[in-house]
UniProtKB/TrEMBL annotation:
A Gene Ontology term for the protein's cellular component: extracellular space
InterPro entries in alphabetical order: Leu-rich_rpt, Leu-rich_rpt_typical-subtyp, LRR_dom_sf, LRRNT, SLRP
Signal peptide: 1-34
Family per similarity comment: Belongs to the small leucine-rich proteoglycan (SLRP) family. SLRP class II subfamily.
Listed PROSITE patterns: LRR
Identification of the protein by name: Keratocan
Upper taxonomic lineage: Eukaryota, Metazoa, Chordata, Craniata, Vertebrata
Organism the protein comes from: Dicentrarchus labrax (European seabass)
Locations listed in the record: Secreted, Extracellular space, Extracellular matrix
One Pfam family here: LRR_8
Length: 344
C-alpha cells in the first residue's frame, strides 16, 4: 500500500512537475513568439529598460521615452528595434547613450532641440539596420552625415536646413522617401552633387523652402515631387524628360507665370496629378490626355485663353459649356470636373 501510495504520489508529482515545466516553457516561449526574441535577450532587454521609459513586456523590442521632458537620451538597451523619443527637450544625439542601440530599425526624434552640432560623430552611421529616421521639428542646419546605408525613410521637415553635404546620400540605395519640407534650402543646395546616390528615391518633398528654380539632379526614379510654397518662376523646357516616372507634381503657391511654362513642359504622359494652384498663370497649360487631376485655382487665367487649350475642348465636350463662359471664379470647379473624367 505504502509503495503504491508513494508511486502514485511520485507519479502525480512528476506529472505536476511536467505541467509546471510546460507552463514555464510557455511563459518563456511567450515573448519569443511575440517578437522572435531569445529568452536571454528578452531578460537583458527588460532589465536594461531606462527608468524614464516604458518597455512593454509583450513588445520587448520597443522602448517608449516620448513626452517625458527629457533633456538627454537615456542609456538605450541593446536589443531595441523601435525607439520613441519624440516630444522631449533633447539637444544632443549622444554616442554614449546610443552606444548599444546598434540594432535600431526605427528612431523617432521628432520635436526635440537637436542641432547639427549636437549630432555626435558617427552616431547614426553605427545603426546599420536603421530603416526609418524621423527628426522633424528640430534645429538641424544641415542634413545629418554620415547616414546608414540601410535607410528607407528620412524625414527632416521643419528644421533650419540650408546645406546638403556633398555625397551624403552616396550608397543610400534603399532610401525611397526624403522629406525636407519647411527648411531653408536655396537653389545652390539642391544639386546633382548633393543628391547623388539616391538611386531608388520615390518621393521627395522640398515644399516650403527658398527655391527660385526647379531643383537639378533629382533621381530618375522620382515619382512624387512636392515643391509647394517656394519662389519658382519658371520651368526649363523638357525638365520632366529627366524624370520619366514623375506622376504627382505639386507646385502650388509659387510664382509661375505662363511665360515661365514652356508649351509642352507638362505634356508628359507619366503625370497623373498636377497641382498649380496659387500661381500667376494667365493661360491653362497644355497637358497630356492621361492627366487625372489638375488644380489651377487662384491664378490669373482669363477666359479667352481657354480656346488655346486641348483641355478646353474636353470641358466643352463634357459640360456643353462654351469657353466664353469660363471665368476665374469658375476655376474652382475645374478640379472636380477633371476628376470626373475618370468616372464618366
Ligand atoms: C552596453 O552594454 C554593455 C554590456 O551589456 C553594458 O555593460 C554597458 O553598460 C552598456 N552601455 C550602455 C551605454 O548602455
Ligand atoms: C503632346 O505630347 C504628345 C506626345 O509626346 C504629342 O504627340 C503631342 O503632339 C503633344 N501636343 C502638342 C499640342 O504639342
Amino acid at each position: 500500500m505504502q509503495t503504491t501510495h508513494t508511486s502514485w504520489r511520485s507519479r502525480f508529482g512528476s506529472k505536476m512537475a511536467l505541467l509546471h515545466s510546460l507552463l514555464c516553457i510557455l511563459c518563456l516561449v511567450g515573448p519569443v513568439l511575440s517578437q522572435d526574441m531569445p529568452y536571454e535577450e528578452y531578460m537583458a532587454q527588460i532589465q536594461a529598460c531606462p527608468k524614464e521609459c516604458h518597455c512593454p513586456p509583450n513588445f520587448p523590442r520597443a522602448v517608449y521615452c516620448d513626452n517625458k521632458g527629457l533633456k538627454s537620451i537615456p542609456k538605450i538597451p541593446p536589443h531595441t528595434w523601435y525607439l520613441y523619443l519624440q516630444n522631449n527637450l533633447i539637444e544632443v544625439l549622444s554616442a554614449d547613450a546610443l552606444h548599444n542601440a546598434t540594432s535600431l530599425r526605427w528612431l523617432n526624434l521628432n520635436r526635440n532641440k537637436i542641432t547639427s552640432e549636437g549630432l555626435e560623430e558617427g552616431v547614426l552611421n553605427a545603426m546599420s539596420h536603421l530603416a526609418h529616421l524621423y527628426m522633424d521639428d528640430n534645429l538641424l542646419s544641415s542634413v545629418p552625415s554620415p547616414l546608414p546605408a540601410s535607410l528607407e525613410h528620412l524625414s527632416l521637415s521643419r528644421n533650419r536646413i540650408s546645406k546638403i553635404p556633398a555625397g551624403v546620400f552616396n550608397g543610400l540605395d534603399k532610401l525611397n522617401l526624403l522629406d525636407l519640407q519647411g527648411n531653408k534650402l536655396m537653389d545652390d543646395a539642391v544639386t546633382e552633387v548633393s543628391l547623388k546616390g539616391l538611386n531608388n528615391l520615390i518621393q521627395i518633398n522640398l515644399a516650403k523652402n527658398q527655391l527660385s528654380s526647379m531643383p537639378l539632379g533629382l533621381p530618375t526614379t522620382t515619382t512624387q515631387l512636392f515643391l509647394d510654397g517656394n519662389n519658382i518662376e519658371k520651368i526649363p523646357a523638357g525638365y520632366f524628360k529627366g524624370l520619366p516616372k514623375v506622376a504627382f507634381l505639386r507646385l502650388n503657391h509659387n510664382k509661375l507665370g505662363s511665360n515661365g511654362v514652356p508649351k509642352n513642359v507638362f505634356n508628359v504622359s507619366s503625370i497623373l496629378d498636377l497641382q498649380l494652384s496659387h500661381n500667376q498663370l494667365t493661360e491653362v497649360p497644355l497637358i497630356s490626355s492621361g492627366l487625372e487631376h489638375l488644380h489651377l485655382d487662384h491664378n490669373n487665367i482669363k477666359s479667352k485663353s481657354y480656346s488655346q487649350s486641348t483641355y478646353c475642348f474636353f470641358l466643352i465636350a463634357m459640360t456643353h459649356l462654351s469657353c466664353r463662359f469660363m471665368s476665374v471664379s469658375f476655376m474652382h470647379l475645374l478640379n472636380r470636373i477633371v476628376y470626373q473624367r475618370r468616372i464618366l
